[in-house]
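Record 1 of the preview.
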Amino acid sequence: MGFFSSYGKLMQMTDEMSANSDVKGDMASMQAKMNAAKASMQAANAAQAAASNPGSRIDHVLATAIIATAVPQTTWVAGGQLTDLTLTVSIPGGVMLPVSTTQLVSPQNMLALRPGAQLTVTLDPKNPATVAIVW
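->
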């Protein structure tokens, strides 16, 4: 008799769950979240492509940066560590710009981030906050 009573209870619970669920609403909510995630990933991929291809942005120039400080944060994203950098950037024409930025740095590139080291970067001279390291 235990099997049939458990089966009956299970069927009752299933009927209650079916009556209380909003499948269309849940699907619409999940679709909206997926669309937001897709848009976010497209923006991140575009930013990464622009940083890896210095010629992809007409307002960006190649420059040399000297690291003043590199302080790793405790945040890791997709295998890379967010790192606060203070740089002195020398753009063509001999202009030196102090720049502070936070970059996502992979573990293999972390060793290159020591004070006094030189890096190749791209940036818009009118907006130094757009600095991106060319690895």
